[in-house]
Specification:
Strand content: 5-15%
Helix content: 40-55%
Mean pLDDT: 95
Strand order of the largest sheet: 2-8-7-6-5-3-4
Oligomer: single chain
Order of helices and strands: HHEHHEHEHEHEHEHEEHHHEEHEEEH
CATH class of the largest domain: Alpha Beta
CATH superfamily of the largest domain: Type I PLP-dependent aspartate aminotransferase-like (Major domain)
Amino acid sequence: MTRLSRRIGALTPSAILTTVMVLEQLRAEGKEIIELVGGEPDYNTPDSGKDAGIAAIRANKTRYPPTDGLADLRRALSRKLQEENGLTYTPQQILVASGTKPLVSAAVMALADPGDEVIVPAPYWVSYPEIVRLAGLTPVFVTCPASNGFHLRPEDLAAAITPRTRVLLLNSPNNPTGAVSSVAQLRELLEVLKQHQKVWIISDEIYEDICYTGSRPVSFATLDAEVAERVITINGFSKGYAMAGWRVGYAAGPTDVIKAMLGAVGHMSNGGSTISQLAALGALTGDRSFLKVHEREYRERRDLAVGAINQMPGLSCQVPDGGFFVWGDCSGSIGRRTPGGEIIATDADFVLGALRYANVGLLAGSPFGMAPYFRLSYSISLPLLSKAMERMRAYCESLT
């Protein structure tokens, strides 16, 4: 038997990828599954992005890109960050990579040594803890309670910081809860972080273009000039721009850290695809009216899903302010029996029952760091989402 490293053996397989594999198997068996699983927009890449990508291919822009990203794209991102986020970074302080995962990985490796701690507010995106562990670091989970809208409380942050703490991971709008941190909430965290000069902040803002609060989410680095020197802002084109398959993410921060991250990215992935970066540049500098259209349609889907779930026996949820997920509480279903007689003891059991008896694919909340919950993606058409809600209602009503 092959001996694998302890590092790999300790990793938890991605719940999202595992569930998608099961769904594909069921579809292959002929079952009509409505998938509410993925973290991917159902929209197509805007024409400006597609046209730029096609033009890049035809112009033979297929060579290795600069490891830190195409200069034209980094210049455009510098302008975007200044005009839309209030962040002042030169193109040299911006790093482009093939998605945001390599950037989060490079950031934690650049900022902390094996044995150091990274604070991960829970619930969290499933890859955060594993990225931290792969770097040889220790994730420290801090629960963000439902009673506080799933926001990180300053007193909980303060209690979690130790002499070994090096990084705090923030994500707003949040995956999976859809919580969007207000200026007041972020300032409360800021006051704690001012007391701990060795703690860096990685601010994942990938869902910023899908927000229902009436204004763009606040970038943490705008709050205080001194603390901004300890912030790495990470974003990308997968969500708002519906360019998930193009794999383009970017990070902005202090020059020395970006340079260190560049060293790590250079060995891990050697920069993002030239074609994808030119497509991203086309989407960023072209007509972006689609962002407001998609945001409005996502809001309609959100309202449908939230209204339906809060009328289902055993379920409840808060109204998310961003992203395209509902973070549902299924505690009222624990202890009940499915039509087949199985006892629902966990959120995983509830999700399995929804798949088995309603042909609806969901994700259990446990891999996101909180139970008993489930994550539901409403990134599908309204008619299909409505059909899924009808199936879920029937399933919940069938539990005894």
